[in-house]
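hiii so um. not sure if this is the right channel but i have a protein structure encoded as tokens and i wanna go backwards to a sequence. like what aa goes where. can anyone help
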């Protein structure tokens, strides 16, 4: 038996999480130690027994032709080779057609099948001429400072063009009973969120994958529920859940240049569970109280690029009917998620109805976040992230939507 009760002897959510991690990871290391395995060759699913038999016969004919050297044996080998090539193409076509038809009601499965059917270009393992330890530190400095640089650049442009930059957001008063407060989550809610998470998501700093959490659910569900409720109650997001591992993913160009890479941020699974539960509660409140403008289609349920396109098209047609001119301004925000100012975001959270206690929780969630960058087997030293919403997070898109909420509404009020 694992002595989970010792966790409750700790006062703060950080201490309880540290105690939980110590027990849980020790148990995992004992019963499911991390091992390096060699992946076996996975044959194509459309290669059936008949095709395998023909391929074996081809190999035998090739050996005979090389041994005898006669034209007759070489022709027999080449004839069978052409026959096999045509048979494989037909078998592959039939297989993927069947897969698409069987998944016609599941768009995700169809696209997964299509990606498998498209021939992959040969990819080579990236090699580094520089020391990967120093390179990982250089990349980490770049990734953690890009938000600050973007914010400074935008402020400089505003000054150069004589634009007024507001340092604060005017508060919107709401009655006490209209404010948002986090409520305690139930055992069933936690289980539902965990079981809905896909198994193929990469683990975070603690190296604990989703599948392990699911397999251990009967044993740890109560403890995880208690940790999340204590986080909401104490308005504190645990420090261990704010550590991110960043993996550079090459976009194009020289892979040893940080700017040519996209940072893929990996967060602990437990942190994503807490975020998902917070997202569910806050989104329900925003929808019920209609706190988000109808002109915002990004990162919202039942909204998409299609809905905003329909809205814009409708405005254009109305203007045409009224003999008016329509002007459209398209803005591409550089480093949009990375350059968000935390103080202003917290003010905007208050403006959509977040209570002071929930704002304190969001402040804890945003502050004191550290990340490391991993290149190969080398990991950089941790650095503090001072700007932006967390990359790879669950709450990030909603927080960005709230940050842009008033801006989107103002555009339609001009």
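sure thing!! here u go:
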């Amino acid at each position: 038996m694992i002595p989970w009760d010792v966790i409750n002897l700790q006062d703060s959510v950080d201490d309880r999480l540290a105690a939980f991690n110590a027990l849980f990871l020790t148990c995992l290391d004992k019963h499911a130690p991390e091992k390096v395995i060699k992946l076996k060759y996975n044959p194509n699913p459309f290669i059936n027994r008949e095709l395998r038999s023909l391929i074996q016969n081809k190999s035998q004919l090739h050996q005979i032709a090389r041994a005898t050297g006669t034209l007759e044996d070489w022709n027999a080998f080449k004839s069978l080779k052409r026959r096999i090539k045509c048979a494989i193409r037909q078998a592959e076509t039939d297989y993927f057609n069947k897969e698409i038809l069987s998944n016609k009601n599941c768009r995700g499965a169809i696209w997964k099948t299509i990606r498998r059917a498209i021939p992959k270009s040969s990819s080579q393992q990236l090699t580094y001429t520089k020391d990967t330890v120093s390179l990982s530190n250089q990349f980490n400095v770049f990734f953690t400072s890009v938000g600050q640089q973007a914010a400074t650049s935008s402020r400089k442009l505003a000054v150069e063009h004589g634009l007024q930059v507001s340092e604060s957001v005017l508060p919107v008063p709401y009655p006490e009973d209209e404010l948002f407060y986090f409520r305690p989550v139930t055992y069933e809610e936690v289980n539902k969120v965990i079981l809905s998470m896909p198994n193929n998501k990469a683990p975070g700093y603690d190296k604990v994958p989703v599948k392990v959490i699911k397999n251990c659910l009967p044993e740890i569900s109560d403890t995880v529920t208690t940790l999340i409720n204590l986080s909401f109650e104490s308005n504190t997001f645990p420090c261990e859940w704010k550590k991110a591992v960043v993996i550079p993913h090459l976009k194009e160009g020289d892979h040893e240049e940080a700017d040519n890479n996209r940072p893929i941020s990996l967060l602990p699974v437990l942190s994503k569970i807490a975020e998902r539960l917070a997202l569910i509660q806050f989104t329900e409140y925003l929808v019920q109280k209609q706190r988000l403008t109808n002109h915002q289609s990004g990162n919202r349920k039942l909204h998409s690029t299609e809905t905003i396109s329909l809205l814009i098209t409708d405005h254009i047609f109305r203007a045409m009917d009224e003999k008016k001119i329509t002007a459209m301004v398209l803005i591409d925000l550089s480093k949009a998620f990375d350059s968000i100012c935390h103080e202003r975001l917290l003010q905007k959270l208050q403006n959509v109805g977040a209570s002071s206690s929930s704002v304190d929780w969001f402040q804890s969630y945003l502050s004191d976040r550290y990340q490391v960058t991993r290149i190969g087997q080398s990991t950089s030293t941790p650095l503090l992230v001072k700007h932006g919403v967390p990359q790879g997070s669950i709450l990030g898109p909603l927080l960005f939507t709230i940050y842009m909420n008033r801006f989107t509404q103002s555009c339609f009020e001009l």
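oh and The two ends are 65 Å apart (CA to CA).
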